[in-house]
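Milestone M4 deliverable, item 7.
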Amino acid sequence: MKVRIPKHKEFLIKFEDGYAQEAEAWEALNQIVKDYSVDGKSVYTPTFIEDNEDKVKALQEKYQFTYEIIEK
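Output delivered:
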């Protein structure tokens, strides 16, 4: 059997070791996913990255993490 799995993009988010607000930041990042799923969308929606990158950038400024977008 052959299965074609479409490529998709993902955020790869990294915090410094021992970052005090990491749990709070993950909660805020997960809220982006929850808010996005209200319309029946998910992280596998082809436009997830484009639709949410500005929100992730805003949280990056607040919580000082690094991220990159990878294609799988």
